[in-house]
Protein: Endonuclease MutS2
Amino acid sequence: MIYPQNALDKLGFTEIKSLIKSHCLSDMGVQMVDRMQLMTSYENINKFLRQTREFKEILENDSPLPIRHLFDIKSLAEKIRVEGAFLSEAEFHQVLLSLQTVFSVISYFNEREGRYPNLEALFEHLQIEKKIIKSIEFVIDEKGKIRPNASPELQNIISGIAKAEQEARKRIDHIFKNAQNSGWTADGSLTIRDGRICIPLLAENKRKIKGFVHDESASGQTVYLEPEEVFQLNNQVRDLEFEKRREIVKILTALSSELRPYVPLLLSYHGLLTKLDFVRAKAMFAIETEGDMPQLSTQPELRLVNARHPLLFLNLKKEGQTVVPLNISIDEQQRIIVVSGPNAGGKSVCMKTVGLLQIMVQAGLLIPVDESSKVGIFKQIFADIGDDQSIESDLSTYSAHLSKMKYFVENSGGKTLILIDEFGTGTDPQFGGPIAEAVLETLNRKRVRGVITTHYSNLKVFANAAEGLENASMMFNNLEMQPLYILEMGKPGSSYAFEIAQKIGLPPHVLNAAKSKIGVHQKRVDTLLVDLERDKKELLETRVAVEKQQRRVNMLMEENEKLKSYLEENRKAILKDAKKEAQSIILNANKLVENTISEIKQNKADKEHTQQLRQNLRKELEKHAEKKEVPAQTIEAAPTELAAGDWVKLTDSETIGQIIDVTKENVILAIGDLRSVVKRKRVQKIAKKEVPKEIRRSYSSGITEDLAQFRPEIDIRGMRGEEALYEIEKYLDKALMMGFSNLRIIHGKGDGILRKLVRDYLRKYSHVSRMEDEHPDRGGDGITNVYL
Structure:
């Protein structure tokens, strides 16, 4: 329930409906938009929102839905419901085109079964009766005219008309030629008068040919005569034409009777077309306003993230400007938000944005907010906006406000959303303030939710002390004397009355006189609010800088931990391999020494043989020493060709990695989860079998997992410039490593600042070959396609 009824106009919902109607393709869709109203059923709201979101997905990312012809077949079905009534050729053609659209749409969704479940529910259990189309197509052609062979009788009649017309034409041509040769005719050729072919004769010759005069020229010098010989033939044609018309009526009546049992089904088809047009119009409007579906809650709560007033958004978009987003939360703890701040600072827009977006969601419309927003369901929405004074009802401005307050207090509850603009104004502030405070206290006890704007200090103080009420203010740059249109929760705002008056140019002596007339306490409170706002702004800027620095520190610490962990694992593997190699060397050396001693014993210490054995032992040991030195010499002397996918080892350590890419001087390595750029001369190519199985396995599983999780699309809407570029850099590196050739970056349209920043950055990225806008139906210049 909405009170009063004109609240829909004042909040802008009527204008929203007009914009949606402009996207409708049929009168039925327009009528359905007119019937849109506030819903309170969670199931219905959820269904309508999901249908709109799915249609938006089709418009942006899928082939166009084949909605070509939408005619009002309901009225036509009702017409043939009456026994003996029949549709005309044009009306049957409209039914035919509409049914073709219905079956094309159903076929479209059947091909994508399961992808759009909420839209598929629109025609669930709907009977597909193609016999209707076949029956109509047998009688009506593709141009909407009756077929000559719709019945044997009609075919014979049409054939008879053609023959009679041909014979009549042949005879009249002969008579006309003879008359011309005799000089009886006037200038001109054969002409039609009263549906009959006539000869133009000079008036003095009209008795020279027997016939019927149908007309004469304005001057009376020419008469138009139908020869007697042709008269009977033309009568025959006229009779056949009447007979043809009777036969057509007979055929159309029979076809109407044949379709009469299908009237309920035709009405169902009409309902489907109407709903499709309605949902399509809502989806088109959602794309136009960059609307999304928030999380839906059954509780009377609200959390808007980056919300924009849709009408303000569209107006500023035309001028190339952007809307400052609104972030506000209403729940059980902070039920009523009391918004204060300077005039023209955005208080009323803030309140109207909350009210309009809430009504839009409960009417089944997507809203321009971040998808992380949450919107609950309210049973009632009460609004007091603007001046409702009435001469007829003898109501002043303040009386009108009080009448609404009376209604609010008597009828509101825990599931009521109230919206009050300039609470308490319209009378002496000395009395209006306390009355407003008392009303607010009563509404708070009834646990209503809502947004109230005010300049009254007593309401700011009351909101600060009362549980369930929360102060909020519209931020103001008191150095440049400009509103920032940013809502800040948790503190009241100054009205900046004197500062604004000074900027406008009110004389200093007037300002000083005004300042001397206000109380010392009030002046101190207002000064304190101004100072508090300035300090808060500085704190906000400092906090942003610290958070940015903290993110950088956290990132570096995370990379450091990964590197430390990898090096620790690698060190253990190197020590293990070294121990194995040492054991092997010792074992081989022991065997060699034992064999040498055994042979010396066998030869009974023969001097020459002993010397020979010692030389052999020395050579074997020297060979092993040379083996240990070969890798370094080989690497230095003859570097091998490297390619992506090769396994390599760093020459100054035992670290093993796989090559991702090769440049002139450097190679990009994947070392576990890390990516590193090293000089080519610092790596040595090794065979795959030399790579430990656990390294190959972990690398393969990591790549597989990355590939499974990686999507060639990134959404940076709502990010700051530096944050967005950082995310894109990581994203491009991973895309290159995975081997993706093209990507989508969703940055939104707005005023184009983020789009320009992203594209300027990508132009400097050497792996990017080209960029282009997405197709207009799938996001246009709000999405950049990047080709690598």
